[in-house]
Structure formats: structure tokens, C-alpha cells
Inverse folding.
């Protein structure tokens, strides 16, 4: 049992990218599924698959690399809000990752969305992580 499942999710992806793995398997939760969907929609991962089993299920993520240079699409994953110190922002103070080139995943009252979508909708929330 991990005390911070989101940090575990990000660390598994980070380690798989550094080891040049094609697929990484992660225990599933609704928050992790939402984060995976955002990573897929924004083009940071190639594909994903949710598998259900008796223990709750797994997420299989196919990581994305450049075809000729083998450079990963994800250069950094950084956990921002953690169990010991939660970080909340209103829509005016939302962070810009790499001056708009990366994304911040925000947990809002409208669900998990990126920082750009939160600014457009005028909602704030908990800053989960930065992806670039």
C-alpha cells in the first residue's frame, strides 16, 4: 500500500521512460484513469488500455517516442500537490508550465482538466502535477 498513489503513478511512468520501455503497467484508480486520458489527449502517450480484474484493475500505457531519434515525448513529470502539502490555485494564479509548452493537470469541481482549460472555464483547484 502506497501512501501517495499519484506519486507512484508518475514515478512508474518516469522510470519506464528512462529505461526506454514501450509499455508500463500501473494499478488503476479513477484519478489515474483521468490523468491517463489527459496524457493521451495531449499527445504525451501513444495509447492506453484499462484492464479490470479481481483486485480493481490495471492501466497499460504505451509510451510515445520519436520514430527516428527515440526521444521520449515526456521529458519531465513533477508532482506538485502532495499529501503533506496541498497546492491550490484560483483561476487567476494557475501555473504555466514551460511558458505554455507543457501542461499542468488540475483537479477541479468539473473534474480533471489541464491548466489551459481551467483558465478558459474560469475555475481553480488542486494542482496535481506538471507534464512537459
Amino acid at each position: 500500500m502506497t501512501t501517495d498513489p499519484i506519486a507512484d503513478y508518475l514515478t512508474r511512468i518516469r522510470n519506464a521512460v528512462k529505461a526506454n520501455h514501450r509499455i508500463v503497467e500501473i494499478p488503476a484508480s479513477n484519478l489515474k484513469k483521468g490523468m491517463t486520458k489527459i496524457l493521451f489527449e495531449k499527445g504525451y502517450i501513444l495509447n492506453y488500455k484499462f484492464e479490470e480484474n479481481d483486485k480493481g484493475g490495471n492501466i497499460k500505457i504505451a509510451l510515445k517516442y520519436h520514430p527516428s531519434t527515440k526521444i521520449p515525448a515526456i521529458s519531465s513529470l513533477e508532482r506538485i500537490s502532495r499529501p503533506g502539502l496541498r497546492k491550490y490555485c484560483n483561476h487567476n494564479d494557475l501555473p504555466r508550465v514551460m511558458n505554455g509548452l507543457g501542461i499542468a493537470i488540475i483537479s477541479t469541481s468539473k473534474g480533471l482538466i489541464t491548466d489551459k482549460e481551467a483558465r478558459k472555464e474560469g475555475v481553480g483547484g488542486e494542482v496535481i502535477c506538471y507534464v512537459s
The first helix runs from residue 5 to 18. The first strand starts at residue 23 and ends at 27. The mean pLDDT is 95.
